[in-house]
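S.,

Sequence below, as promised.
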Amino acid sequence: MLWVALFIAGVFGILAGGIPLILNGLRAGSATILALGLLLLVSGTIGVVAKPDLVALRLPRLVFGGSPAPAAVEPQVVKSADSLPAPDEPKMAEAPAAPAADLAAKDESQMAAKMPEPVTVTTTKIVGGEGEPMAGQSAPLNDASADAAEPAAPAPAPPAAPKIDEAAELAALMPQQARDQSAFTKVVTAARQEYESTSIDDRGALQSSRAAAICAAVKNPAIKDWVGRIKEIDKDAGGRTIVSVSLPDGTLVKTWNNAMSDIEDKTLVIAGTPLAAAFGKLANGDSIRFSGSFFPDEPDCYRSSRLSLDQSMTEPSFLFRFTEVEKL
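The prediction came back faster than expected:
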């Protein structure tokens, strides 16, 4: 079990160090975690295959009171010939059990003996004075049965809540965009449309041309007063706020969703700060105005949270550190 645990810990260490290394480039923390994961993985693999005998990990066996006493052997009893029944000796017949019917009869008789003697009552019958015992009761019974058979009218269903048209709400934010945001969304939208209409063999060159256009539209990674709609807002185990915002063209700007990946970028909103209090008043679907900064990185001018070229071009998403936010 020790070697298996080392192997599993090594796998998790490689994942924890390798993924940030791929996304963020060479970092000291990521390289250290990756090296530790490789060491644990190799140790666990050698242990599972070779199965070395670790004498130092054995616990000494404590012996109390010497060796255990042997289990007592139960003596066999041999019956003598005198104790066996004679072959011709007839067996004593068992007394037949009392029939159940006799017992039942006995109980009933005991109950009858305790009952009092019946009293004779003299009645006088008046000819022509008898009435029907159920006369005049048929109508009420029919009414009651009719009421019971009639089903109750169903309660009216509540009106359905109107569906929120996310695309329409995002389109309504376009006139409120800052100048650099408007240029950014136009570049990303045009690149998406060109990518979808281009053959697969020629798509690779579009990413670099889009990156150059983005850098020209947003020259400073620190932006101010952009508008968007909250796609998702949540908190991690440490109370830090996770945010994802949709821009009017559908592009996402978002924080990391876990503290391990966010060690160096510091995008998660720390609990107890004024920014966390501002986000605490918001909910999914709220339109907001925000400020913050992108992370300059290749090959998209600013760091993308997408791993594949197809996702980066058709579903663009950029890592972002928020500094201000307010509800529109």
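The longest helix spans residues 2-24.

Coffee later?
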